[in-house]
Amino acid sequence: MPPLLYFGFLFLAAVVAGAFGALLGLGGGIIIVPALTLLFHIDIHYAIGASIVSVIATSSGAAATYVKEHLADMRLGMFLEAATTTGAIIGAFIAVYIAGRVLFLIFGVMLIYGAVMMFRKRFMSEPPPAPPDALARRLRLSGRYYDAAIDQIIAYDVTAVPIGFSLAMVAGGVSGMLGIGGGALKVPAMDLFMRVPMKVSTATSNFMIGVTAATSAGVYFARGDIDPFIAAPVAMGVLAGTVIGTRVMQRLRSEGLRLIFAVVLVVFAVQMFLKGFGV
Description:
The chain contains eleven helices and two strands; from the N terminus they run ααααααββααααα. The chain is mainly alpha-helical. Strands 1-2 form a two-stranded antiparallel sheet. α1 packs across α3 (44-68) and α4 (74-95) packs across α7.
């Protein structure tokens, strides 16, 4: 394939990944890594390196919009960032010692987990608002946001802070290991355990993933796992797609986001399992 045409296809795939990444708070990496490995047959380690760069681009584009619209909870995001950055450094160092096939299987397990949690939540009645726990009160993590889909201001409290913090560290480790931003774990952790509304969880995840990715990007760059010919079109495409995703997300209901989230994760989980088992 001519280099220019190859560059163009990478860009288009990244636009789609960026739109879904911003829409669901996934960072785009959860889509771009399977796309690069399954469609373009790029080695998973180079795909992860390119994804790390694209995640930074996604976060930069989406976070600006979400912060401006007061959807991202910056206080909660910076608190959880302490856990995710620590996990990201550990994950990035571990990744080089793991075989590509094992990475595919780990990726698939993580995708299935996120999909199941989101799908279950869609059929569950919303629990009554939980009072903030002691740590949430001390850190003043409760907040409010404007939901354009229902034209209301929604107030919320945050609970289960220790559980959320622990899951954020795991998400950071997954991010550093797989180059996906960790949104597939951060969003369920905030939405399901900490009782943060889905839209705020998505926006806050987008705000966080850039810092998480930047933490591990240095490790991948030093190892030579970031190929500019792959990373450049992917980063530009993801940034363009992010603009689309951020505008669409604000008009969707939370139930719709959860369904899209689950379907996308299941599709790619199956593909990654097949790749991991050599099918």
